[in-house]
């Protein structure tokens, strides 16, 4: 029985990719915080707060993906 502890790490192998945590940001903004922001008031820019929150989360999603991509290619 061979142990996986002695595997060779080549240039394509990556261990510990903390930059993938950026992908949790859109998830938390869209779903995790939804019960906390599900309010009609206050009104921001004439829109209910929930709409403004979802718009902001949607606009931050490409930024989180870009930060993940940038962190992955810096190695």
UniProtKB/TrEMBL annotation:
Record carries keyword Transmembrane helix: yes
Highest taxon listed in the record's lineage: Bacteria
Protein's recorded name: DUF3311 domain-containing protein
UniProt keyword annotations, A-Z: Membrane, Transmembrane, Transmembrane helix
InterPro entries assigned to the protein according to its UniProt record, in alphabetical order: DUF3311
Sequence intervals crossing the membrane: 20-37, 43-69
């Amino acid at each position: 029985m061979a142990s996986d502890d002695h595997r060779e790490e080549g240039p394509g192998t990556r261990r510990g990719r903390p930059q993938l945590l950026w992908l949790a940001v859109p998830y938390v903004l869209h779903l995790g915080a939804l019960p906390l922001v599900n309010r009609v008031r206050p009104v921001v820019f004439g829109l209910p707060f929930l709409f403004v929150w979802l718009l902001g989360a949607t606009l931050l999603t490409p930024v989180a993906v870009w930060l993940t991509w940038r962190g992955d290619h810096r190695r």
